[in-house]
Amino acid sequence: MKKFLVLFTGIFIAVFCLAVTGCKAKSENKTQSSEKPEKNIIVGFSQIGAESEWRTCNTENMMQAANEAGIQLIYSNAEQKQENQIKAIRSFIVYQVDVIVFCPIVQDGWDNVLQEAKDANIPVIVVDRKIRTKDNSLYAGYIGTDSLEEGRNAGRFLLKKYKNASGPINIMELYGTIGSSVSEGRNQGFHEIIDKDPRFSVVYTESGDFLRSRGKEIAENICSESPAGTLKVNGKTIHAIYSHNDQMTLGFLEILDNYKIKCGKDITMITIDAEQSAIDELCRGKINCVIECNPKMGTQVMEFVKSLVANKPIPAVTYVPETVFTEYDALDQIAPRGY
């Protein structure tokens, strides 16, 4: 009888333990299955175009960062037209993306479409170029280049380059897209520096729209009307060229070579972006100063996207780190640019 009670007690305890364990497992499984999976974030990205290695790198970096962050990116190429960007943003609103990211081709003309995004509770991040709005709450924040500082760096290099020159020093400015924040900033920052020195004077400015083809066209028109081996505008010899981006610079250099004009020696060349092709020309002595405009902002943008989806604010303005490369540097130590 005692053996039977011991056996019965042992079986009862074992069954009880199994039951408790089973209930616990079911409870844990139920808890796990009731947890919501992480939200699949969708971002609408409107890019200006694919007009340069810089722009292509910027797009690829954004796509790579989104992929690494597990974010779905819907990409739209505006092909250099603001109306295409506005259409893309409206399509993102209809699609009900979580965040809109766009690089504005110009500063103005965004209020209406951004108000539509705000009404749809879709936050917007402006990248690379800034915008002007009547209401800054229409977008969450800006991340990109400090174009004013880029212009100042161009001016500072000229001061160093011509510190022992008597002057006058005539400058030609290759302007980017009219109405874009980067061109206005690069122009303003440059003049902040050089206008303090009476030796410097910008004697000619023309917009090349950030395009290599326009750089070539402008150079051809000027060179064809200049005496052999020189670059003159309105009868004034050009001593320095300040170009708002590498693509215009490279197109300009191509024509100067055809006319046997020695850029980098007889003419000082300053350019912005720091594409590999521009660094190569710096190493060859045809460019004197290359100012970096960093296209690799994708990782930070995706961090901002996650913050906005979590209803957390992002900084109103974030500048990406940038540097300056000049003829005075150890050029063989410049790392490959990757674009």
**Adjacency order of strands in the biggest sheet:** 2-1-3-4-5-13
CATH architecture classification name of the largest domain: 3-Layer(aba) Sandwich
Cα(first) to Cα(last) distance is: 88 Å
Name the CATH superfamily classification of the largest domain.
Response regulator
Class based on secondary structure composition and strand pairing:
alpha/beta
CATH T-level topology of the largest domain: Rossmann fold
Write the layout of secondary structure elements.
Blueprint (H helix, E strand, L loop, with lengths): L1 H33 L7 E6 L5 H16 L3 E6 L4 H14 L3 E4 L8 H9 L4 E5 L12 E4 L2 H15 L7 E7 L5 H14 L5 E8 L4 H12 L8 E2 L2 E2 L2 E4 L2 H13 L9 E6 L2 H9 L4 E4 L5 H12 L7 E3 L4 E3 L13
Parallel strand pairs: 1-2, 1-3, 3-4, 4-5, 5-13, 6-7, 6-10, 10-11, 11-12
Antiparallel strand pairs: 8-9, 12-14
Task: Describe the overall structure.
With 339 residues, the protein is α/β, with parallel strands linked by helices. The protein folds into 2 domains: 131 residues, Rossmann fold (3-Layer(aba) Sandwich), CATH 3.40.50.2300; 147 residues, Rossmann fold. It has 10 helices and 14 strands. The strands form 3 sheets. A 6-stranded parallel sheet has the order 2-1-3-4-5-13, sandwiched between helices. A 6-stranded mixed sheet has the order 7-6-10-11-12-14, with helices on both faces. The N terminus is likely disordered.
Task: Please summarize what this structure is.
This protein is α/β, with parallel strands linked by helices. It has helices at residues 2-34, 53-68, 82-95, 111-119, 147-161, 181-194, 212-223, 246-258, 276-284, 298-309, and strands at residues 42-47, 72-77, 99-102, 124-128, 141-144, 169-175, 200-207, 232-233, 236-237, 240-243, 268-273, 289-292, 317-319, 324-326.
